[in-house]
Amino acid sequence: MQSSKHTLSFYFDMLFVNSIEQVTQSFVGNPNFYEQGYSYVQQFDYYIKDVMVEEDDIMPIFETDIIERKDFLEWLLNIENIKFYKRLNEDLSFLSDNKDKSDYLKNIYNDIQVLIRRLIKFEHADTEIVEDKLIEIINNLKDRYSAILTYHDVFKYLIKETDITFFKNKDLKYSFYVDLYECAYTLYLIDDTEIEEIDFINAFTSPNPQLLKKKIRFSVNNYVLSYFLESLKPFFNGFSHAAIEKSEVFLNKQNKPLKSTDIYVSLSRGKGKIEFEKTKIDSHLLDLKNKHLK
């Protein structure tokens, strides 16, 4: 069986060999345009193609399709995804055994997981477009081949706005929760040697966090902890003090479940006592808002 990496070679080249910026700078003279029948108009810096929308021997109807530079990356990724599905279908057509097909899909999902982990660490304006296209692949493969492979860890990246999450998360991508975890341990609110990233993320995204075996123990006093949790409200539709208590997933420094009264009392009595910590939390949370909230 061929390696699945050839199927996702465009993404691997973009994220590990070249860069997103190099891809976006290949707008002029990109062979994909000519393969699709487009012509470049230098005066207006766009590509153009006449597309027949209604076939008629007497009077066919055409529409003009224009691709501008700002839309180039998304257009290119759409083309590459079409090529990806074609290669994947060809590869699967040579496999008659369901176990071989399952192993092949596992390799595809493993590779997508590697790509998304790489992408999350990038600081580039267009990372969201690339992430969306990779998640689109996961969604499509999950819908089409769930009978062959029912579950893979990569499905965790499909977090979207949904009422099935306990805290009624807003439309936040997986990268938000990775950044939130990094924020929490950077501020020394948690011990990252004690709490793994996946357990931290599960606490915020699970439909039933009270059933999770791994709880999130914070390493700071209730004043700081309560202020941090209060600051997270804009990212959720149901992150109330009562919901935090009912989740049973957050533990204070003394390893006891956090109560709504603990948060209320701490916020009331902590005013003016933790200004330095509040300033640091505010700074990190502002970065998260600017990056992840529209």
Characteristic terms for this protein:
mainly alpha, three-stranded antiparallel β-sheet, 294 residues, two-stranded parallel ribbon
Protein model, in words:
With 294 residues, the chain is mainly alpha-helical. It is 51% helix and 8% strand. It contains twelve helices and five strands. Strands 1-2-3 form a three-stranded antiparallel sheet, with no helix packed on it. A two-stranded parallel ribbon has the order 4-5. Helix 4 runs parallel beside helix 6 (127-145), helix 5 packs antiparallel against helix 6 and helix 7 (174-186) packs across helix 8 (197-205). The mean pLDDT is 88.
Shape: elongated
Give the number of helices. 12
The termini sit apart by 43 Å
Mean pLDDT: 88
* Protein structure class: mainly alpha
Number of beta-strand segments: 5
Specify the oligomeric state. Answer: single chain
Which runs of at least 5 residues are low in confidence (pLDDT < 50)? none
Helix content: 40-55%
Order of helices and strands: HHHEEEHHHHHEHHEHH
Q: Beta-strand percentage?
A: 5-15%
Major beta sheet, specifics? 3 strands, antiparallel
